[in-house]
Amino acid sequence: MKKNIAILMGGYSSEYQISIDSGNVVYNTLNRDIYQPFKIVILKDKWFYLSEDDQEYAINKNDFSILINDNTVTFDCAFNAIHGAPGEDGSLQAYLELLNIPHTSCDMYQAAITFNKRDCLSILKANGIKTATSYYLNFGDPINEKKVLDRVGLPCFVKPNKSGSSFGISKVYKEEELGRAIDVAYKEDNEIIIESFLDGIEVSVGVITFKGDIKVLPITEIVSDNDFFDFEAKYSGECQEITPARLTKNETTNTNKIAKQVYTILKLKGFSRSEFILIDEQPYLLEINTVPGLTKESILPQQAIAAGMTLEELFNNAIEEALK
């Protein structure tokens, strides 16, 4: 009997459209001989199933079911393709776990931690993971620009504490640019993080649980045509994503080791994609995504294909791991 799979897409953040794209790729890829996929769109004002003929059927949030032609449909598993809130911050994970519905992402606590860059970096720093020097601000805090720059130096990056896809991130070269960059970041989140610039090779590393084992996928080297790996570079083709990355044996070994260590320390499962800067063959962690992009152009699917997997194998495995 086919398993009903709710493919969760949409969300409450600026990454809404990227999530829709990811969800549609999953929907179109899943094996119909094994699974019956349902597009479940989650918005702030409504949750609904979107049928093939574009009809909307409301989700009963009491048990996460839908009523179609007087038949109640429930789900064996939820495939989480929501980037940002509520799919990446722990909210949706907590809801599904309360209802005992298996899902493809990490657990609630891990999602909340990794979505909060400050908390995540604090845990990993304590475990010996190298990171940039950082300075934290909350909305309403007095801003002492000299104190900030004495700590992080110039250039530096100003970014929202909880966001993705490079929304709200600025690279600051001069002290007079800092205030505007802080304002831009506050439009995405009321907490921000200001980090020192790391001059090295930027790489992205996918780590997944595959057939019961933690697997590090081939590393992707990021060469942005822009000043940094911003939204346009990520989604408008203004960068090179080279998989496998052009790294030395030591750089590859060190990066694989640290990426797997991060996944293990945080007790992650499902998909993850970590971003690093390599300096003198040592990886410095920038951030972790636990619901990375899943379109054919996205980095993690590229890495899976380089590892010899098809997208169908990648997605099917995520569901089977969740159902365990």
Topology (SSEs and partners):
Layout: E1 3-10, H1 16-29, E2 35-42, E3 47-50, E4 56-60, E5 65-68, E6 71-73, E7 77-80, H2 91-98, H3 108-115, H4 117-126, E8 134-138, H5 145-152, E9 156-160, E10 170-172, H6 178-186, E11 191-196, E12 201-210, E13 213-216, E14 220-224, H7 231-235, E15 239-242, H8 249-265, E16 271-279, E17 282-289, H9 299-306, H10 311-323
Parallel strand pairs: 1-2, 1-7
Antiparallel strand pairs: 2-3, 3-4, 4-5, 5-6, 8-11, 9-10, 9-11, 12-13, 12-14, 12-16, 14-15, 16-17
Helix pairs in contact: 2-3
What does this molecule look like?
With 324 residues, the protein is of the alpha+beta class. The protein folds into three domains: 3-104, Rossmann fold (3-Layer(aba) Sandwich); 113-130 and 199-323, ATP-grasp fold, B domain (D-amino Acid Aminotransferase, Chain A, domain 1); 134-196, ATP-grasp fold, A domain (Dna Ligase, domain 1, 2-Layer Sandwich). Helices cover 31% and strands 29% of the residues. It contains ten helices and 17 strands. The strands form three sheets. A seven-stranded mixed sheet has the order 6-5-4-3-2-1-7, covered by helices on one side. Strands 12, 13, 14, 15, 16 and 17 form a six-stranded antiparallel sheet that branches. β16 and β17 (282-289) form a beta hairpin. α2 packs antiparallel against α3 (108-115). The longest helix has 17 residues, at 249-265.
Helix share, percent: 25-40%
| Number of domains as seen in the coordinates | 3
N-end to C-end Cα span: 17 Å
β-strand percent reads: 25-35%
Structural class label? alpha+beta
**Largest sheet geometry:** 7 strands, mixed
The multimeric state of the shown protein is single chain
* Overall pLDDT confidence: 93
Total of helices: 10
Total strands: the figure is: 17
Order of helices and strands: EHEEEEEEHHHEHEEHEEEEHEHEEHH
Q: Per the principal axes of the C-alpha atoms, what is the gross shape?
A: globular
Order of neighbouring strands in the sheet with most strands: 6-5-4-3-2-1-7
CATH architecture of the largest domain: 2-Layer Sandwich
**Low-confidence regions:** 229-235
